[in-house]
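Translate sequence into structure tokens.
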Amino acid sequence: MNRISKRLSLCLAALALTVGGVIAAPTAGAASAADCAVRVSDSRLWCENGAPAILRQGAYHEAPITGQLLSTYSWFDCWTSGGLHGGNNTTWYHTFGDWIAPGYDGWGYVPADWVYTTGSFDADPSAHGLRHC
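Result follows.
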């Protein structure tokens, strides 16, 4: 392999690692999942989440960006099934963003791997009291 090919390979590998780190969902600790609960007072899921988390108009990664969650503790008013994400499931949570994309109303969906719920919660959020969208 010549010198230019080696440099190009190293640059591409570094870029892949950088981009992979940017789009990968954060991991949650056990204490974070314990703090997640649907409150009786407002029927919302209140939970820690990764931030900034992108909100999408639909429950799939190709949907337009409607906003972002900048806070690390947020509420979610419902859930739906959508595209497969890094949490290896198709659960997406609906909420209102802290930042609103121009031309949108700020409401959107976050993949479950950005919300620090447990796997059993993501498997059936309705069983835990969160309504289906």
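Note: The CA atoms of residues 61 and 71 lie 21 Å apart.
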